[in-house]
Design goal:
- This protein has 9 helices and 14 strands.
- The protein has one domain: Rossmann fold (3-Layer(aba) Sandwich), CATH 3.40.50.1820.
- By secondary structure, it is an alpha/beta fold.
């Protein structure tokens, strides 16, 4: 399984456009030796019998007034063997990075085995394709539609509604997880659909640079995870094609304000093992105090990690633990 993931990752890239790296660096395949360590030890279960596919017509990459947001954009729903239509389950949606795909992002994060063992419905959809054949989410002005008219908020909202119409979904436990561009899109969903989204996790993403563009109708719990050596989406902030994005600390500070937290950030006593290349529990964590029960704000920092860190086997379980601990009230 590790070798398979390595080969797949060598053929695709989960990176955004970079202000700190050259174009050739930002688009080179990830070294196999690096990514072989990021797959879970247990192979994902066979989804052929347990997943259902939404049938849709020819692909489209622009939004047409009155059009079905799901048109041309198929997705699979992984349904764990423990699913019972009489009992509502959480729904987790994983969003890939710029130029990647839902399948590759799933292999990198290793969430599908957890969907089976922990019992949640799971979707890892694809964005649309831009003029240079890169899949993306139209999240913020910084990342990564760059003038696109695609309405991915409408698409992801329709996706959630479609899953709810076919499966028993707990409306208090609808979660988004994303890497890079997918992290930006997760924040966009928290900003625009706070009524629907209970919590999000972003690895190497960011919220709006201008926080006045984010007007959540109610608190949403957020977890930002970021490496301090990220040369693509800078830990301290940066610029993509002339558009600024906030750093990790500013992102969580903005969400502390959004959620109405009244206290400062405080360090959590227990570190995390998030990076497979560093022995032990290397990552520190802080959380804002005085937040509403439905609006927790945390920052997990991976020291010296770059944009695509080799994730530890504990990474997936740790972020699912965060999500499940923060349902809507």
């Amino acid at each position: 399984m590790r070798r398979l993931v390595g080969l797949l990752f060598a053929a695709a890239v989960i990176v955004s456009c970079s202000s700190g790296e050259t174009a050739s660096t930002a688009t080179e395949p990830v070294p196999v030796d690096t990514v072989e360590t990021v797959a879970p030890d247990t192979a994902p279960p066979d989804t052929s019998a347990d997943a259902t596919t939404t049938a849709v017509p020819v692909p489209a990459t622009t939004t047409v007034a009155g059009a079905d947001p799901l048109a041309g954009r198929p997705f699979d729903v992984f349904v764990p063997s423990s699913y019972d239509a009489g009992t509502a389950m959480p729904l987790v949606i994983l969003l890939h990075g710029f130029g990647a795909s839902g399948i590759i992002q799933n292999l990198y994060f290793g969430l599908q085995p957890l969907a089976e063992s922990r019992g949640f419905l799971y979707v890892h959809p694809d964005g649309t394709i831009n003029p240079i054949d890169k899949q993306f989410w139209n999240a913020t002005d910084a990342c990564c539609g760059f003038g696109s008219t695609v309405d991915d908020v409408a698409y992801l909202t329709a996706l959630v509604n479609d899953v709810q119409s076919n499966y028993s979904v707990d409306p208090k436990r609808i979660f988004f997880v994303g890497h890079s561009n997918g992290g930006f899109m997760s924040y966009r969903m928290a900003c625009d659909r706070a009524d629907m989204v209970a919590a999000i996790v972003s690895l190497a993403g960011a919220t709006w640079e201008d926080n006045t563009k984010c007007n959540p109708s109610e608190p949403v719990s957020v977890l930002q995870i970021h490496g301090t050596a990220d040369g693509t989406i800078g830990f301290e902030g940066g610029t993509l094609l002339g558009n600024d994005h906030p750093g990790a600390r500013q992102t969580v500070a903005d969400w502390s304000d959004n959620n109405g937290c009244t206290g400062p950030a405080a360090e959590l006593p227990t570190p995390f093992d998030l990076d497979a290349s560093i022995p032990g529990d290397e990552s520190t964590a802080t959380e804002y105090t005085g937040c509403p029960v439905s609006g927790a704000v945390e920052l997990w920092v991976i020291p010296e990690a770059q944009h695509i860190p080799p994730l530890s086997p504990a990474f997936g379980a740790d972020i699912i633990d965060f999500l499940f601990a923060h349902p809507k009230p």
